[in-house]
Amino acid sequence: MKELTLKYGCNPNQKPSRIYMQEGELPIEVMNGRPGYINFLDALNSWQLVRELKAATGLPAAASFKHVSPAGAAVGLPLSDTLKKIYFVDDLNIELTPIACAYARARGADRMSSYGDFVALSDTCDAAVATLLKREVSDGVIAPGFTDDALKILRDKRNGTYNVIKIDPDYMPASVEAKQCFGITFEQGRNEIRLDDPALFENVPTRNKTFGDDARRDLIIALITLKYTQSNSVCYVKDGQAIGIGAGQQSRIHCTRLAGNKADIWWLRQHPKVMSLPFVDNIRRADRDNTIDIYVGDDCEDVLRDGTWQMFFREKPEPLSLEEKKEWLSRLTGVSLGSDAFFPFGDNIERARKSGVQYVAQAGGSVRDDNVIETCDKYGIACAFTGVRLFHH
Fold first, then answer.
1. Stretch 250-258: mean pLDDT, rounded?
2. Is 282 known to be catalytic?
3. What beta strand segments (E) does the chain contain?
4. Percent of the chain residues topping a pLDDT of 70
5. Residue from 32, 39, 163, 232 carrying the catalytic annotation
């Protein structure tokens, strides 16, 4: 198949719409559903991300994409009982395979943003992943293959309209890519930089120069994730998964704050008070996610006031106090932070360390590098200047 006609483009008024190859055949096969223009943008960007994560780490990888940026990305490390609970997979009577663990982590990083996601898997989609996907609000999935059991599960999802795309894992695009804006064609070499190159971590100007194996893995995950995130972008990673991604912010400190706030919410969801919230039976997954997000935030009264809490809880929970939040957040450590360009000021590091950041990888090259290094040294943070910018638009 050389060409595929789409219903419409980014918006319903944008017609006609299609994807096609100038030369050769399309490397994809639509196994179910009717993916749209944005679906394919999410699918193809997320596929590149997970393919690179798998190549760099040797582990199965998954990504949860929304509006051409990842809401979450992860490799397939086993889940602790706590993570199973906060990712809402603890009730499944199935074995969570490595690729299923990768998706549970990717979806669990920021469940609010992952609502209605497009999913990418580096490995064959098995029944375990399909079982997770079946009960989430999701637009579709792209993978290099699907087991028969997985296809059967996915074809029953969303009244048979769930989008399932199979991609040729051996497909390699041309080294030069082009796109149009306002009738003008832009052309550039593809960004094929390898982000698992040890040389990226050789320039360490901070006093702390120690990066353990886990920290290096997590920084590589952060950098690869940023390569496919709309710039400006910052990514916090812990234990093989993104826990906070800030995308498309004009100011880098706003990006650092946004991603840091998401990382804080991810950690606060593991607080005993949050894990024991007495939800009413049969609460919808989206309502539960939204309620948790509000409960751990500054507007908890929006779900705790009389006349409202009864909609979500069997009994009224105690609020999570500011002191309890601060104490719990102080326990978050070992976080790695990647940035798609240099940090212009030390304020980014000040914000990052509040979310447990101990390792940083950024391009370097700011006129205020000295301020950034000084701030890292103040907190014993190890920071590598990679010399690599990863803008993506």
1. 96
2. no
3. 3-5, 18-20, 28-32, 61-66, 69-75, 117-121, 138-143, 163-167, 176-181, 184-189, 233-238, 241-247, 335-339, 357-362, 382-385
4. 100
5. 232
